[in-house]
Design brief:
Length: about 250
């Protein structure tokens, strides 16, 4: 896919986002000011994957992590290509009660998503992975689409994953079926790590607080893009926090 085609996809791709009220203004004495600034970096065109440098500010990260502390642990995840494995990381759902910070984050995501046909976003989800925990290989795309209140079948057309913390060791997000940077190309080792095993391929991204990824889970016809399969690698030292923003597409 050429960059001109990518531009056409991004430009021709409409999204409604979770309900928010009023303009993005600051009410005194809040120090928060909403801006939509970050630096995108294209990592892959098939599927489309964009690295988002400094997508969240420190204030926004602290706000998200202060919202809730009742962590839920997910059940076994069954991947069609592997034996059942345990997702050991926890998560919380940010309830549908928008405030000026979550409104701004959703709006910022919307500016990138553009015109992807969409019914909106799922409620924001914050994940936590502690030492010894992981999130095994999976697709964000649902094997069994969900039925919404309008009787439409919905799935996750695209995903954002934004790191809310740095991690001392481990916790990379790994896409084994994507082409990583060529061996002869220098990479920013603060953001990227090459798989260590000989012959290993794929895209492996280190946790960088405030930065993250956007990628497509489907082809233009709505079917699964299998190369979007990914894993949250085991955390060895530190605690990993991340924000999931999932774009719903319904038929």
């Amino acid at each position: 896919m050429s960059l001109s085609t990518v531009a056409a996809v991004v430009g021709a791709l409409s999204i409604k986002f979770w309900p928010f009220q009023g303009a993005h203004t600051v009410t005194s004495p809040s120090p928060y000011v909403c801006n939509l600034h970050y630096t995108p970096e294209i990592l892959s065109t098939e599927p489309l994957m964009i690295y988002l440098n400094d997508f969240l500010s420190l204030y926004e990260i602290n706000h998200l992590l202060s919202l809730n502390s009742n962590w839920t642990y997910a059940p076994n995840i069954t991947d069609p290509e592997e034996k059942p494995r345990q997702r050991t990381s926890g998560y919380i759902i940010v309830e549908d009660q928008p405030d000026e910070v979550t409104n701004c984050i959703v709006r910022r995501a919307d500016t990138l998503v553009g015109f992807i046909p969409s019914e909106g976003l799922e409620l924001l989800q914050i994940g936590r992975t502690q030492p010894g925990e992981q999130h095994p290989l999976h697709w964000d795309y649902l094997q069994e689409p969900e039925l919404n209140s309008a009787g439409k079948l919905c799935n996750r057309a695209a995903s954002f994953f934004i790191f809310l913390s740095d991690v001392a060791e481990g916790g990379e997000t790994y896409f084994p079926y994507l082409d990583g940077p060529p061996a002869e190309v220098p990479v920013d080792e603060r953001k990227f790590r090459r798989p260590k095993r000989k012959g290993s391929v794929g895209m492996m991204l280190r946790p960088v607080k405030g930065s993250g990824l956007f990628w497509m889970n489907v082809y233009q016809n709505g079917t699964l893009e299998e190369r979007s399969r990914h894993a949250g690698m085991m955390v060895k030292r530190g605690t990993k926090y991340g924000l999931n923003i999932l774009v719903e597409q319904c038929v």
